[in-house]
């Protein structure tokens, strides 16, 4: 069953802090809290295009939902109840901070049909958290995550790379500790310097250096592989490229690309194809022509930007010809090497 989220953005609502990288008004592309009528209109618009048999969640994104005063939380949640009762929407998803979780609040959410809670964790390194003004520690994340799962919610973890004080080693350590908490899903966001934030000021003063696109891809590639090995899905890599975020002067620095996740997958496929080709040549000897066999849905990931992956591999192995053959029966994310005279 295909899953759909209906996103409702509540920019900065409930969050008591201003983290150094954050300008929720720009990230959420909205300056105002949506009215009841606007929320209902958004729901109807999405449902008109979503198949009736699909699994649908209403997702409150942008703010720290559990930090909102209880009456306001209930007002938002009550608005969704008719859709839950009719079965057209099967659950509610919220995002919040790890230090805004308690047992009573979780019981309230469960009573209103909340199924998934995503925590904006960012890092599990205490120094990185402190330098980013997150105001909680890694242990707070572990306690909140355990409580969320004990109460029967699906747990999502949102991570960021490239924060002040961050390193590759700290990112990988965060991944391994996240895996130990066994979330049902993960999002990964490279840090961007947004105009008007404290991070923007640090960047202008030379106190912060953003990751390059290539550096961010390399880090996320290894993070992706670790989560994949642990069977934890990454449901998004990179910020959603809305019009406000892509406006002139909004992003001052950082590895922004509208298809960042695809670039990471392409980097993984290039490594995978290189390994497969090397094994084939080591076993059967060199050749002028070789074939890469893949599932047709993996074509763009194998080719890379402007066929850069294929060109790289062809040059690396001194091949006269390197052709791609697509097979619907080939398993997704697998690469198969063959010669002209063989299967």
Written account of the structure:
The protein is of the alpha/beta class and 343 residues long. It folds into 2 domains: 3-258, TIM Barrel (Alpha-Beta Barrel); 265-338. Helices cover 40% and strands 20% of the residues. The chain has 12 helices and 12 strands. It has helices at 24-27, 36-47, 70-86, 103-111, 126-131, 138-150, 168-181, 198-204, 213-229, 260-284, 299-303, 308-316, and strands spanning 3-9, 55-61, 91-96, 114-122, 154-161, 185-190, 193-194, 234-237, 251-253, 289-294, 321-326, 336-338. The strands form 3 sheets. Strands 1-2-3-4-5-6-8 form a 7-stranded parallel beta sheet. Strands 11-10-12 form a 3-stranded mixed beta sheet, covered by helices on one side. It has a two-stranded antiparallel ribbon with strand order 7-9. The longest helix is centred in the C-terminal third of the chain and has 25 residues, at 260-284. The radius of gyration is 22 Å and the shape is globular.
């Amino acid at each position: 069953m295909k899953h759909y989220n209906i996103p409702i953005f509540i920019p900065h609502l409930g969050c008591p802090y201003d983290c150094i990288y954050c300008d929720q008004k720009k990230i959420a592309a909205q300056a105002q809290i949506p009215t009841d009528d606007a929320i209902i209109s958004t729901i109807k618009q999405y449902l008109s295009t979503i198949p009736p048999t699909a699994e649908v969640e209403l997702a409150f994104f942008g703010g720290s939902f559990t930090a909102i005063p209880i009456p306001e939380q209930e007002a938002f949640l009550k608005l969704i109840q008719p859709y839950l009762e009719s079965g057209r929407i099967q659950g509610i998803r919220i995002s919040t901070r790890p230090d805004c979780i308690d047992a009573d609040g979780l019981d309230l959410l469960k009573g209103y049909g909340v199924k998934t809670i995503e925590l904006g964790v960012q890092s599990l390194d205490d120094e990185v958290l402190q330098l980013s003004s997150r105001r909680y520690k890694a242990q707070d994340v572990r306690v909140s995550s355990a409580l969320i799962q004990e109460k029967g919610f699906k747990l999502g973890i949102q991570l960021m790379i490239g924060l002040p004080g961050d390193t590759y080693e700290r990112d990988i350590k965060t991944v391994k500790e996240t895996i130990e908490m066994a979330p049902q899903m993960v999002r990964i966001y490279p840090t961007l310097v947004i105009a008007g934030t404290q991070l923007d000021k640090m960047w202008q003063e030379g106190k912060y250096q953003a990751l390059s696109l290539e550096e961010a891809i390399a880090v996320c590639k290894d993070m992706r592989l670790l989560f994949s090995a642990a069977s934890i899905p990454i449901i998004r890599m990179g910020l959603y490229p809305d019009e406000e975020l892509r406006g002139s002067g909004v992003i001052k620095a950082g590895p922004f690309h509208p298809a960042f996740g695809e670039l990471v997958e392409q980097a993984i496929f290039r490594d995978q194809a290189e390994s497969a080709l090397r094994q084939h040549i080591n076993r059967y000897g060199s050749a002028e022509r070789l074939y890469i066999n893949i599932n047709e849905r993996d074509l763009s990931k194998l080719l890379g930007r402007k066929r850069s992956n294929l060109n790289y591999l062809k040059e690396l192995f001194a091949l006269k010809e390197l052709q791609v053959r697509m097979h619907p029966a080939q398993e997704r994310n697998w690469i198969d090497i063959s010669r002209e005279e063989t299967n």
